[in-house]
Amino acid sequence: MALPLELESLTEAISAGMGMGVDENALISTLGKSQKEHRKLFRKASKSFFVEDEERAFEKCHDHFVRHLKLEFSRFNTAVVMWAMHPWERDARLVKKALKKGEEAYNLIVEVSCTRSAEDLLGARKAYHSLFDQSMEEDIASHVHGPQRKLLVGLVSAYRYEGNKVKDDSAKSDAKILAEAVASSGEEAVEKDEVVRILTTRSKLHLQHLYKHFNEIKGSDLLGVT
Known about the structure:
The chain is mainly alpha-helical. It has helices at 5-16, 24-33, 36-45, 63-72, 77-84, 87-101, 106-115, 118-132, 136-143, 148-157, 168-185, 193-201, 204-218; strands spanning 50-53, 58-61. Helix 6 packs antiparallel against helix 7. The longest helix has 18 residues, at 168-185. The relative contact order is 0.08.
């Protein structure tokens, strides 16, 4: 299948090493309009930039391609590199970057683990194996110290139920557990096993119901708890 015309232009620009000579407006327009399937076609067609990881079923960037893009598109390297990568690789590299930056960047790990589908998070863990020769979980466990470790490892290890069924009684029970933990421990509630279990295993819909019940129990917004 041929690449869409605008992606052919982008491929030619990258291959030619045009770098800062690329039309900036056209580049941003192309990145903004492209669809998920277009990006997949780009990776499949650009064999000099990507290699197929057949074991884990995704296309990963050659390291030289990442270096090339960062050099040639210095002002746009983040947008271009993230656009070009398979979503699994993108998320794996984001987690690795967060670990290198340290505690102030751990919110990025939370974002990746909580906003991706169960399959995409699993895919990111597979990509992590391929890229860094270790699991995401063990890397987090070796870099993160203190109460955050248990929660972050649990979050990236999750494979949450994504159906539309919620047991409201269970959500209410979890809300009570969380409210009691917050009341007795404050910010240290995240260290409690039951709190970690709830936050790392419950479905997103379940947590939405929990949020509602918590606010009713406490008379205050869970997001405002300190």
